[in-house]
């Protein structure tokens, strides 16, 4: 027979340990914000939009690969004297067609907003040179020059702290529930009858130390 959970007893069990929950939430928020402020590297996005003139209409995925190719990125690294290798920078560059247009977005993520914009703008002429050799691209015209975001996209204090708060609450309450579920301490005469199957004949009340001295 499965043991039933006394909701009232569970409520008091949680209430008596509310300080644990509070401390867990505070600790999680403090550690999380230390990580956000002092450890996590802020990243900024810069996006340039270009118009690609070509008679061939089904090469957008190929253009995206050219933008992120080692030949293009190595040239960008040389031009801007960057310290990254092209294999690393490749993960920070995205290129995609704007739906139902002949325009393409090139987005760069970088730890320095100014450098992010410079990288995005520098990619365009080098991409044009490479794509002319490979696909006979007639022209690549800049529609919008890159402007980096003023705030890092990967650090959002309100959203992240809400996640920390919910996670800390869920984890601490979950641990308390597990402790309650596996707690075999006898707390009342009902526990004796339920767990041992024995009738309770009498109860000896607890005597406070002050009452003992008075007697």
Summarize the structure.
By secondary structure, the chain is α+β, with helices and mostly antiparallel strands.
Overview of this structure, please?
The protein has a four-stranded antiparallel sheet. It is built from nine helices and four strands. α2 (18-39) packs antiparallel against α7 and α4 packs across α6. It is elongated. The mean pLDDT is 85. The protein has two domains: 7-37 and 156-206, no CATH class; 44-148, Alpha-Beta Plaits (2-Layer Sandwich). The longest helix is centred in the last third of the chain and has 25 residues, at 157-181. The chain has 215 residues and is an alpha+beta fold.
Q: For the record, what is the CATH homologous superfamily label of the largest domain?
A: EIF_2_alpha
Number of helices: 9
| CATH class identity of the largest domain | Alpha Beta
| Integer count of domains | 2
Task: Tell me the series of helices and strands, N- to C-terminal.
Answer: HHEHHHEEHEHHH
* CATH fold description of the largest domain: Alpha-Beta Plaits
- The spatial strand order of the largest sheet comes to 2-3-1-4
Inertia-based shape: elongated
Task: Report the sheet with the most strands, covering strand number, pairing sense and barrel closure.
Answer: 4 strands, antiparallel
Instruction: Report strand %.
Output: 15-25%
State the separation between the terminal residues, measured CA to CA: 46 Å
Tally of DSSP β-strands: 4
Q: Helix- and strand-based class?
A: alpha+beta
> Radius of gyration, rounded?
32 Å
Helix proportion: 40-55%
Stretches where pLDDT falls below 50 for ≥5 residues?
A: none
Determine the oligomeric state from the structure.
Answer: single chain
| The CATH architecture of the largest domain | 2-Layer Sandwich
Nearest-integer average pLDDT: 85
